[in-house]
Amino acid sequence: MSRIGMKPVQVPQGVKVTVGPDLVTVEGPKGKLTQSYINEVEIAVQGATVVVARKSDSKQAKAYHGLYRNLVNNMVVGVSAGFTRTLVINGVGYRAEVQGEALMLSLGYSTDFGVAIPKGLKAVVEANGQKVVITGFDRQLVGKFASEVRSLRLPEPYKGKGIRYEEEKIRKKVGKTGVK
């Protein structure tokens, strides 16, 4: 039995959840999100909670049970509080700045990178261009954009240069000793 799927999703004040035959819509102060779902699960609004139940005990239904409960929970949290992902830029001369609807990154290459900020997201540069804070109400979009920016210069283990998540720890490796 899915332990995550059994937990009901608490709907805070000001958030409206609408369940259709194959679509869940969540509206809140930050925006509106929709998610389609398959008929292996049943989603119902009961007062101030959303309950996800599975129709059968098949392996596939058990997997979808926890998945759709978490997707609905992420939608509710996103439209009420939002999500944040912080990137830290390490390296001499490495920096970031926001120019209009683009994030400009100087990462030690011969040219700078310009990454378009997706609609619905906001990027703020802090700490003298060394920290990028990405916020939005769609968890999937925030994570995907942060991952794309990080992939432009992955952190390397010898000097620690590159772009990493704030909570990520890079294990340093020992370089060559130069002893003959």
Provide a descriptive summary of the structure in words:
- The protein is α+β, with helices and mostly antiparallel strands and about 180 residues long.
- It has two domains: about 5-80, Outer Surface Protein A, domain 3; about 85-165, Outer Surface Protein A, domain 3.
- It has three helices and 13 strands, in the order αββββββαββββββαβ.
- It has a four-stranded antiparallel beta sheet, covered by helices on one side.
- Strand 2 (about 15-20) and strand 3 (about 25) form a beta hairpin.
- The protein is elongated.
- The termini are far apart.
- About 25% of the residues are buried.
CATH superfamily of the largest domain: Ribosomal protein L6
Summing up helix and strand content along with how strands pair, one would put the structural category as alpha+beta
| Euclidean distance between termini CA atoms | 61 Å
- CATH classification, class level of the largest domain: Alpha Beta
